[in-house]
From TrEMBL:
CDD domains: SRPBCC
Organism of this sequence: Nocardioides anomalus
Annotated protein name in UniProt: SRPBCC family protein
Gene3D superfamilies: 3.30.530.20
Pfam families: Polyketide_cyc2
Signal peptide (residue range): none
Amino acid sequence: MSSNTRIVSATPEQVWEVLSDGWLYPLWVVGASRMREVDDSWPEPGSRLHHSVGSWPLLLDDETEVLEAVPGARMKLRAHGWPAGAAEVTIHLVAHASGTEVTIEEVATHGPGALVPKPLQDPVLGWRNTETLRRLAYLVERRQQRV
């Protein structure tokens, strides 16, 4: 399992505000390029984001489903991204003296990506999630500057 952590200069509730706005997903998730629809119940378990991955003209429509949500603390997702397959992604939020410690854990669970040995998966997922956390931090922190 790939695991990445970053301190975000905001409260867990402020980070959760961004996570719970499904329309912001492509702004912080590496690979997601546009939103097509967000279920009205997002981020309740079972709700889905309908997004596209890739770059035009090679866009694939896919979705991400909430498996578990604890507001201000944790969100577990099943992210689909064909042709690679699917992954389970858990985002942990923990209050920290400097704001919020955000950890993303990801493991490929279905499709061709799951067949890649873990020692080869982890560096790629680690790179991707380092950038994902950087984007999330920028988005959350810039929102707080405007308030």
